[in-house]
Design a protein that fits this description.
Strand content: 15-25%
Number of helices: 20
Helix content: 40-55%
Structural class: alpha+beta
Largest sheet: 7 strands, mixed
């Protein structure tokens, strides 16, 4: 019998139903055990036993401070197993993905830090807890040099060290407190039946140190895994500072910038190590470019000028930042979505929700993560809603230029794209259908950028039929060995997933009507062997009818509309 089974049998949970729950970047695994209407969480740290003792220490300490952490029901430190109180599934990340109002959630998360930081230091910090000193901070950042810039010269490494050693002590001008070190929305949970700060359940704190209070604020507001709206960031920092009137704002902002630079540098190294050494590729592919942008922003603070100079002079920036070759895109959002009626009677199809977010909102997130700096979105049907969406996204992503292309008449896909060509010039740009949704580790836009560098020709992202999620799987194109595609072949075995890359050359030298389909231009390109396809490795969702939304996700609004419709038929 394994150590795990012995532990479960000893504590009466060996017969329980077991379901895997989301893990993390460490070697720890989690299972939800259900038995007789009760649930617990099994933490399996058998591959990272060194994390068990600090987890137990900090868990019990935070519990003594009246902060909600999972109560430890049973433990086997020697083999690396814990049974923990089950907080459920409502992480703040899940609630935000479902488009819950973000400000109250961030405020609850900030209240935990405020409550902790208001405690006397001798109460807030466990006795003999390790110190996150400037030296330890620098040691944490060496992972960046090891994995992001392994070929950096000795001079570059020396300058990097000197620049950081100059500023890191300045971060400690802010008050010291317990630093949880991984405090973000995926690691906090809503516990609505509890009161006050206890409504926010805290997970993942075994890496805690004594250090500057600004570190966890950065971790929360400059999340490595999601874009936090600038307005939320500023509101939360202001909210925090109001609770500490004696804290000098300039001192806080300086410490905050240094901790942001430290955290983002360290995280980039961790993601690359996970990718190259441990085979966990999703972190690097999904988030590295976003974190690279956060690092660039942090290094704009005046106190970070020498570090920025070091990055510039020695070319230490992450390669993901330098690989961006296509930085503009168009989202097609002007159509009526007739097949999606009655859901589209009052809402444009791209703004319908799927998996907790608007379909087009998901596309914008993916484009932002890919480093796109200009996004043009067209609108005709219910275009005020589209225009309002564009305005909201401009506030959420100030680093991206959003443009609304107003279509006074029906232009179809080809006419709609042609109207926007002046915004793109001769440079390539992505075109994404407003109802496209896909999942997988592959970065679609990075892949298309690479193909463009090689082919310099229009390329459509395609899916094998078994990658497509829809009722009727019918091929659109046949992919040839040389990468060319044809739709005039009886063996069509690929579906177009609503994403492609092109430039103005596709339209040049052609007499075209006011409204026309892109298909006409693709057929012309096929005849000259300048139309290519690239197969996507993930899953694509063809969202065409209300039933597609309901089948793939439990969308309450879709269900209720269809129910009302059935009652009247």
């Amino acid at each position: 019998m394994t150590a795990k089974n012995i532990f479960l049998e000893k504590n009466g949970w060996d017969k329980a139903d077991k379901r895997t729950v989301a893990g993390d970047a460490s070697g720890r695994k989690y299972e939800r055990l259900t038995q007789n209407g009760q649930t617990v969480i099994l933490m399996d740290a058998s591959q990272s036993k060194e994390s068990i003792a600090p987890f137990i220490q900090i868990d019990q300490h935070l519990e003594s401070l009246n902060i909600s952490v999972p109560h430890i029901i049973a433990k086997d430190e020697e083999n690396g197993f814990l049974l923990l109180e089950d907080f459920g599934n409502n992480t703040f990340k899940k609630l935000l993905d479902e488009r819950k109002d973000p400000e109250p959630l961030y405020k609850k998360a900030m209240d935990v830090l405020i409550d902790l930081h208001k405690m006397p230091i001798e109460k807030a910090i466990p006795k003999d807890l390790r110190y996150y000193s400037p030296q330890k901070m620098y040691e944490d950042m060496v992972i960046y040099l090891d994995w992001i810039t392994p070929d950096a010269s000795e001079k570059a490494k020396s300058d990097f060290k000197k620049a950081w050693e100059k500023v890191l002590p300045m971060a400690h001008a802010c008050p010291q407190n317990l630093v949880l070190r991984d405090y973000h929305v995926a690691n906090v949970m809503l516990l609505p039946k509890r009161d006050g700060v206890k409504q926010c359940g805290v997970l993942d704190f075994q890496d805690a140190y004594r250090g500057p209070t600004t570190y966890d604020i950065v971790s929360l507001l400059e999340d490595a895994r999601r874009e936090v709206p600038q307005e939320i960031q500023e509101n939360m920092k202001e909210y925090y500072l109001k609770q500490f009137p004696g804290l000098d704002k300039k001192t806080f902002e300086t410490s905050y910038a240094i901790m942001a630079g430290l955290r983002h540098t360290r995280v980039l190294g961790i993601f690359k190590r996970l990718h190259d050494f441990l085979g966990k590729k999703s972190y690097q592919k999904q988030y590295a470019r976003h974190v690279g942008g956060l690092l660039r922003s942090a290094l704009q603070h005046p106190v970070m000028k020498d570090i920025k100079l070091c990055f510039d002079v020695h070319d230490l920036w992450p390669k993901t930042e330098k690989e961006i070759s296509v930085s503009q895109a168009m989202i097609l959002a002007a159509g009526k979505g007739s097949r999606m009626r009655p859901l589209t009677d009052g809402t444009p199809k791209p703004l319908l929700k799927f998996k907790g977010r608007s379909i087009m909102g998901y596309t914008v997130e993916k484009l932002a993560d890919a480093g796109v700096k200009k996004i043009v979105i067209n609108g005709h049907y219910l275009k005020k809603q589209i225009k309002d969406f564009v305005d909201r996204k401009q506030k959420q992503y100030p680093e991206i230029k959003f443009i609304f292309s107003d279509e006074s008449g029906i232009l179809e896909t080809g006419g709609g794209v042609r109207q926007t060509l002046p915004y793109f010039g001769k440079d390539p740009f992505f075109v994404v259908n407003g109802d496209s949704y896909w999942e997988g580790d592959e970065n679609v836009f990075e892949t298309l950028s690479q193909v463009w560098r090689e082919k310099k020709a229009t390329t459509l992202m395609l899916c094998d039929l078994d990658q497509v999620n829809c009722a009727v799987k019918k091929g659109d194109y046949f992919l040839k060995e040389n990468g060319n595609i044809t739709r005039f072949d009886s063996e069509k075995n690929k579906m177009y997933m609503g994403v492609h890359i092109t430039n103005a050359d596709l339209f040049s030298g052609k007499e075209l009507p006011v409204h026309f389909s892109l298909l006409k231009l693709w057929d012309d390109a096929e005849k000259t062997n300048t139309l290519f396809g690239q197969v996507f490795t993930g899953q694509w969702y063809h969202l065409s009818t209300p039933e597609d939304l309901i089948e793939k996700e439990n969308i309450d609004s879709a269900n209720s509309v269809l129910h009302r419709k059935s009652l009247t038929e």
